[in-house]
Amino acid sequence: MAILHNDTFLRALLRQPVDYTPLWIMRQAGRYLPEYNATRARAGDFLSLCKSPDLATEVTLQPLERFPLDAAILFSDILTIPDAMGLGLRFAAGEGPKIDRPLRDEAAVRALRAPDPAASLRYVTDAVSQIRRALDGRMPLIGFSGSPYTLACYMIEGGGSDDYRHIKGMLYARPDLLHRILEVTTQAVIDYLNAQIAAGAQAVMVFDSWGGSLSHAAFHEFSLPYLARIAEGLTPAAEGRIVPRIVFTKGGGLWLESLAGAGYDALGLDWAVDIGEARRRVGHRVALQGNCDPMALFGTPQSIEVEVSRILASYGKGSGHVFNLGHGVSQFTPPEHVGALVDAVHRLSRAYHHDQPAGSPT
Fold first, then answer.
1. Is 118 a member of any domain?
2. How far does Cα 196 stand from its chain's mean position?
3. Which of 19, 31, 126, 347 is catalytic?
4. Which residues lie across from 230 on neighbouring strands?
């Protein structure tokens, strides 16, 4: 593999010294970019885009041509695992993802098996390998998966949900069935992420997008232990480097101490948490990733710079911070405002590292 020319992101995740605060953006390859929309139209539909390594590589690289980001993230979807489990995945226009055969009865739950990534998810690992070749050492590539609980939400609800009635009904009435689903899905996530690492992913992230919908007790029974098991099961190093692990529980600000003990190198934060307070709470156990409100990008370039400055000041001096949004970038975001964000982070963050004056990251 090629020499990695910019490893700032990986070093920040491991709390090693860096010259500036690196950043990438959740959903950075997405509908706010006209070139992405053109490629998606060519693909015909979202799932076809995900399942074509050529097109997944194309859209992964698109934001990197516009903005001097510090990491690429594989273009895919968290629901590739339920699809590979044979539950039937489709994306209905204007409605989001739909699972054709949701897990609602004991027989279906007992029949659930973790898929073999080499067989049913080969298109993802092929995309990882192809993206790594295309990057040619410019920056690291992030692989990712949904968390077991978040995947279970879709697998049981049959799609997105406002109240999580079906999964929470199972949680309280038949916790044994939910634990069975989570056990199988945890193994699937471990196998899937390790396959991505073997194919060339240099960091991996677990999106616990719906973990924050749980009660305190339920989070510590139905999400956190499975997140910890994933961290323990991941390949620790590849190509002579540590492969950093990131976990992001949206709405998980109440449980930062628990998450910091789950075995990951970094915690993603949503915008409801003050990053300086989060740093004080987790101490030196983990790096932090985040946590600008995506809606801040609907301000002005000047107000974006003010918000960037506030977040950098709240985190304070030293490494261990990867700048990001607190969730995915909105499809309605002006691309030039993303450019303003990237410029502000790179320009203003140098003052927080090695007492260097603010300047360009290059």
1. yes
2. 14
3. 31
4. none
Q: Rounded to an integer, what distance in angstroms lies between the CA atom of residue 278 and that of residue 288? A: 8
Q: Strand locations in 107-202, DSSP E?
A: 141-146
Task: For 106-127, write each residue's pLDDT tens digit.
Answer: 999 999 999 999 999 999 999 9
Active site residue 347: no
Residue 362's pLDDT is what? 36
Based on the structure, what is the number of domains in the chain? 1
Catalytic residue among 20, 32, 149, 154: 154
| CA distance readout (Å), 247 to 205, 206, 287 | 6, 5, 11
Domain contains 361: no
Give yes or no: 154 in active site: yes
pTM score, whole prediction: 0.95
Q: Which of 324, 321, 316, 320 is nearest to 342 (CA)?
A: 324
**Exactly one of 77, 83, 208, 343 is catalytic; which is it?**
77
Contact 250, 294 (CB under 8 A): no
Read off the CATH number of the domain in which 204 is found: 3.20.20.210
From residue 301, give the alpha-carbon distance in Å to each of 59, 63, 309, 310, 340. 25, 19, 12, 14, 6
Catalytic pick among 11, 15, 27, 279: 27
pLDDT < 70 regions, the chain: 1-2, 355-362
Residue 269 inside a domain? The answer is yes
User: Is 122 one of the annotated active-site residues of the chain?
Assistant: no
